[in-house]
């Protein structure tokens, strides 16, 4: 850290150096003269990084290696007979071999830039081979562009070609896999070393990202078949909703809609990453092509035209399937919500009927209670008058009172008191109930 920073006691963010190194990672390899570049890409899982690093150490056991550049996700090795560049990405790892060629050297059709590497080391690379491409770099003094153009037959393979880097070089390819490799031919007219290295790097990245982008196409075709069945199933469910007459019918349709919603969400979760990765890879392909700064060669499609004609339809298919999935998910959710609302309304109607019936029963109980209260007044009056009669009989000899008259007089008094007390108690209970609400 700078002494001024130390003096000011400034605290450095722990990711500052790492982020800056990432900004400068994977620089192009300067190339001068004739070269053969072999680029291999292996699709791997997220747990193979350590195994790949261990395999890289084995490469240097059989060769005298000098590490030119090395980070956690990038290694550049010079083994004398060849150079090898390893890069670790999220879904794949790339191994790019550089072998210099003598001027005018004729290449065997089976020649690679890693001929000096032992086959056992190649078999130890984790993952499955996804991309294998050769880039042959020559000067226009060795191979003239006119000779390449003259060798193209009208009925042969579709050749993609362009002049790049402000017409400082020529590039040819057919994007076909021949003997396990796709091939690019670069005829350098006046590019600098770093321009050449950047051009080679862009070409291998175009080939890598092109095939990685296409990984979404089989998934899109598979999901497309399922989407057709899911959309048809949803339409049938809508017919069942319109024909539903009972709450049981609606609940059955709602259960089917919930099951379909679970299937749709599972499909979305399973394919979101793949479709998103395909969009990102396609964007990188078009960006790398734009960086080539193509100029058309008369009679031949450029790299951009070729990708627009061959790669873009596949990417549009992935985009369409992803959009159909989202639309189906939204439709299922919307219809499920509508059906739930319909079921809830029916339940509320049934609850309203139950409440109405409960109110009727409560009124009946109230009438019965009032009737019982009337009977209670009679009963209490009767028992009260009997008590008065017994009391009057007990005091008859003392006061010579007429017990029957006293009993008769007490009956209306007792009835009035009982009725007044009952009504007062009822009003008190009603007031307490009203205060609680």
Describe the protein.
It is a single chain. The protein has eleven helices and nine strands. It is α+β, with helices and mostly antiparallel strands and 437 residues long. It folds into three domains: 28-210; 216-352; 367-436. Strands 2-3-4-5-1-6-9-8-7 form a nine-stranded mixed beta sheet, covered by helices on one side. Strand 7 and strand 8 (169-173) form a beta hairpin. Helix 7 packs antiparallel against helix 8 and helix 9 (303-394) packs antiparallel against helix 11 (403-436). The radius of gyration is 45 Å and the shape is elongated.
Summed up:
With 437 residues, this protein is α+β, with helices and mostly antiparallel strands.
Query: What's the average pLDDT?
Result: 86
Number of domains: 3
**What is the ordering of alpha helices and beta strands?**
HHEHEEEEHEHEEEHHHHHH
Shape: elongated
The total of helices stands at: 11
Distance between the termini: 73 Å
| Major sheet details | 9 strands, mixed
* Main sheet strand line-up: 2-3-4-5-1-6-9-8-7
Number of strand segments: 9
How much of the polypeptide forms β-strand, as a percent range?
Answer: 5-15%
Q: Tell me the Rg in angstroms.
A: 45 Å
């Amino acid at each position: 850290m700078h002494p001024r920073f130390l003096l000011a006691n400034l605290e450095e963010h722990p990711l500052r150096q790492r982020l800056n190194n990432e900004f400068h990672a994977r620089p192009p390899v300067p190339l001068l003269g004739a070269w053969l570049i072999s680029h291999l890409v292996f699709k791997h899982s997220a747990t193979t990084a350590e195994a790949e690093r261990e395999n890289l150490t084995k490469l240097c056991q059989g060769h005298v290696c000098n590490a030119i550049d090395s980070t956690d996700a990038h290694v550049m090795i010079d083994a004398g007979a060849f150079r090898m560049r390893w890069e670790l990405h999220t879904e794949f790892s790339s191994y790019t071999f550089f072998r210099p060629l003598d001027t005018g050297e004729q290449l065997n059709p089976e020649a690679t830039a890693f001929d000096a590497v032992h086959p056992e080391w190649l078999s130890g690379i984790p993952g499955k081979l996804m991309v294998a491409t050769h880039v042959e770099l020559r000067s226009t003094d060795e191979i003239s562009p006119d000779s390449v153009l003259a060798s193209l037959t009208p009925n042969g393979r579709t050749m993609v070609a362009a002049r790049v880097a402000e017409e400082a070089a020529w590039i040819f390819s057919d994007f076909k896999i021949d003997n396990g490799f796709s091939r690019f031919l670069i005829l350098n007219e006046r590019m600098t070393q770093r321009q050449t290295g950047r051009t080679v790097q862009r070409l291998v990245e175009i080939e890598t990202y092109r095939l990685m982008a296409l990984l979404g196409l089989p998934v899109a075709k598979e999901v497309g078949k399922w989407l057709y069945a899911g959309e048809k199933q949803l339409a049938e469910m809508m017919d069942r909703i319109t024909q539903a007459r009972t709450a049981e019918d609606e609940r059955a349709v709602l259960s089917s809609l919930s099951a379909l919603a679970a299937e749709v969400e599972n499909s979305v979760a399973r394919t979101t990453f793949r479709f998103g990765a395909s969009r990102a890879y396609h964007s990188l392909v078009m960006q790398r092509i734009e960086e080539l700064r193509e100029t058309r060669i008369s009679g031949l499609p450029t790299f951009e035209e070729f990708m627009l004609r061959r790669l873009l339809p596949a990417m549009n298919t992935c985009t369409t399937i992803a959009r159909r999935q989202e639309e189906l998910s939204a439709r299922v959710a919307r219809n499920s919500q509508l059906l739930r609302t319909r079921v809830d309304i029916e339940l509320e109607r049934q609850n309203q009927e139950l409440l109405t019936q409960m109110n009727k029963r409560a009124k009946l109980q109230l009438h019965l209670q009032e009737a019982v209260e009337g009977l209670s007044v009679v009963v209490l009056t009767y028992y009260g008058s009997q008590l008065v009669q017994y009391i009057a009989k007990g005091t008859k000899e003392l006061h010579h009172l007429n017990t029957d008259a006293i009993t008769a007089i007490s009956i209306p008094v007792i009835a009035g008191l009982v009725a007044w007390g009952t009504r007062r108690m009822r009003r008190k209970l009603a007031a307490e109930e009203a205060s609680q609400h």
